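Run log // design_07
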């Protein structure tokens, strides 16, 4: 079975040429990210992902995490791999140096994270949730909480979780019923049950720091009455080391379709007198703080979609090159050939590859925007970058994950009947990818956020500015790329039409707007991906014109042409679904389903 190989050449191209690595590393605080440092990190991450994490991916799928009497044992090899991960400093790559992090740009940590997710989706979830906990505490934690928890979370010696969901409170967090009772000295006793807690219990570290949503006794109903608490698995002794066991226990783990190596825990808080925790930030602002974690997690789940898709593509290419079956179309009496010669297999592989390139470009450009939103010296530039990143994060999450499911399914299809056999490994990528469009907010939640808070609320200001940038990029396509330009122009027109319709109708006909929200998210993702592909094509054309003969550049033109012909052509239909599709979605009576 083949192992993951990081596509470093493609990653470097996107980081440098599309996401603007040189500009990003010039930002205050990013000075350590010299070209030599960036290259060394990428090379070592590629080695670690390919040699350490990838071989454990199948192990985790076959021999998943196990639960017995509140104790969870991770898959064979995971604990040792995590120790290597921590010892090599990977956990603190983008974290604040004040607490032991390396302070490297989001753009760089994004590329590295993609490798973890491609090599071993289940393993990568543990450090991902820890990063979210770090961000929440950095912004809302007290000085005492930061000192107590951040050094060990940043190093990875401890891991973090986010505890939102309850049996009666899924996506509707207003229904959260876990409670927190003050006991004096700024501490609380937390009671309740949380479900779907990724790495809520495991054996890889000696402490787990749970961030938990709960209500205080006098809290108002709804989302305005939710507070956030730090509840460690082990209470801290005076010297800051783990001491007494806290009253939080794993009562079971879920049996899932995929990501078997990642324990998804049901956690009981306070069954034996109360789990001790401390308030994060101000009372009743917990949901606001938790969304710090959520926003970071949503972007990272988009990277999971990218990672699963890349791995499914690599496996499919290896199989298509090796599997000999049939003669080549149009060659009468010819020899049997590898199936990569067959036109429809090529179509499927290019459908996978072209979207992956578009997804990666969009994610990396969004990561660079987050770097600029955080560190650019000009306040106007910071605000523009923040608005761009906020607009694109639900698209990176929603469009990338939905695309990944289709791409992983195509990977099974390329294998034919063998793809349905677990031993080939193709099915795992489909099973693993399926969750990405659900957790950290379903695709509909991303789409509703996109059309509401990100577009209608500001009358489309940010997205119309992005559309102007798209048109400026189309103007850079020369005569040799005119065919791509025609496709892009039509797709951007379709996107703009849908934006104007949403702005005009969101308030007066909200049901119709929401009925078209997911098609709009698909439309925006597809067109934004095409925008980045077009930028890449201009660069590739200039390299070829300058005499460069590396086949990388010709391949970039081929994938861009394929993307334009096979995906941008869908834009007008998606726009039609947005502006005219509500009637069909809403007219059928409930009892007729």
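design_07 sequence
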């Amino acid at each position: 079975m083949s192992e993951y190989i990081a596509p470093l050449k493609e990653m470097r191209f996107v980081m440098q040429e599309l996401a603007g690595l040189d500009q990003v590393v010039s930002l205050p605080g990013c000075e350590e990210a010299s070209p030599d440092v960036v290259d060394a990190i990428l090379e070592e991450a590629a080695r670690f992902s390919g040699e350490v994490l990838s071989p454990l991916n199948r192990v985790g799928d076959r021999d998943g995490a196990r639960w017995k009497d509140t104790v969870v044992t991770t898959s064979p090899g995971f604990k040792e791999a995590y120790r290597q991960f921590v010892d090599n400093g990977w956990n603190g790559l983008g974290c604040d140096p004040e607490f032991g992090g390396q302070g490297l740009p989001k753009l760089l940590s994004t590329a590295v994270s993609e490798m973890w997710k491609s090599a071993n989706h289940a393993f990568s979830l543990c450090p991902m949730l820890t990063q979210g906990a770090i961000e929440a505490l950095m912004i809302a934690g007290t000085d005492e909480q930061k000192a107590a928890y951040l050094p060990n979370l940043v190093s990875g010696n401890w891991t973090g979780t986010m505890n939102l969901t309850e049996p009666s409170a899924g996506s509707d967090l207003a229904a959260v019923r876990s409670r927190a009772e003050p006991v004096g000295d700024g501490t609380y006793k937390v009671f309740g049950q949380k479900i779907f807690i990724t790495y809520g219990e495991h054996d890889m570290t000696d402490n787990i720091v749970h961030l938990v949503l709960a209500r205080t006794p006098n809290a108002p109903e709804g989302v305005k009455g939710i507070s956030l608490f730090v509840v460690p698995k082990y209470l801290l002794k005076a010297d800051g080391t783990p001491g007494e066991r806290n009253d939080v226990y794993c009562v079971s783990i879920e049996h899932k379709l995929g990501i078997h190596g990642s324990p998804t825990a049901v956690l009981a808080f306070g069954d034996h007198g109360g789990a001790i925790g401390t308030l994060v930030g101000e009372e009743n602002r917990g949901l606001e703080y938790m969304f710090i974690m959520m926003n970071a997690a949503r972007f990272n789940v988009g990277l999971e979609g990218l990672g699963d898709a890349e791995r499914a593509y690599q496996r499919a290419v290896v199989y298509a090159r090796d599997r000999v079956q049939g003669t080549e179309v149009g060659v009468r009496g010819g020899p049997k050939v590898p199936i990569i010669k067959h036109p429809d297999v090529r179509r499927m592989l290019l459908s996978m590859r072209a979207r992956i390139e578009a997804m990666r470009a969009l994610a990396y450009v969004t990561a660079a925007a987050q770097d600029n939103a955080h560190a650019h010296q000009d306040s106007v530039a910071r605000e523009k970058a923040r608005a761009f990143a906020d607009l694109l994060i639900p698209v990176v999450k929603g469009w990338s994950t939905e695309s990944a499911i289709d791409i992983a399914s195509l990977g099974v299809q390329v294998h034919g009947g063998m793809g349905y056999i677990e031993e080939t490994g193709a099915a795992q990528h489909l099973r693993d990818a399926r969750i990405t469009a659900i957790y950290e907010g379903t695709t509909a939640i991303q789409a509703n956020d996109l059309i509401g808070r990100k577009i209608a609320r500001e009358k489309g200001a940010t997205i119309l500015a992005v559309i102007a940038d798209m048109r400026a990029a189309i103007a850079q396509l020369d005569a040799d790329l005119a065919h791509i330009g025609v496709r892009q122009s039509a797709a951007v027109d379709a996107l703009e039409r849908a934006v104007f319709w949403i702005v005009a109708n969101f308030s007066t006909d909200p049901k119709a707007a929401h009925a078209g929200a997911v098609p709009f998210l698909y439309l925006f993702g597809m067109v934004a991906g095409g925008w980045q592909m077009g930028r890449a094509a201009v660069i590739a054309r200039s390299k070829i014109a300058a005499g460069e003969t590396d086949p990388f550049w010709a391949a970039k033109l081929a994938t861009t042409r394929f993307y334009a012909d096979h995906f941008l052509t869908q834009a007008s239909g998606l726009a039609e679904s947005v502006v005219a599709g509500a009637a069909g979605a809403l007219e059928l009576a409930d009892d007729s389903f």
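Residues 11 and 312 are 17 Å apart (CA to CA).
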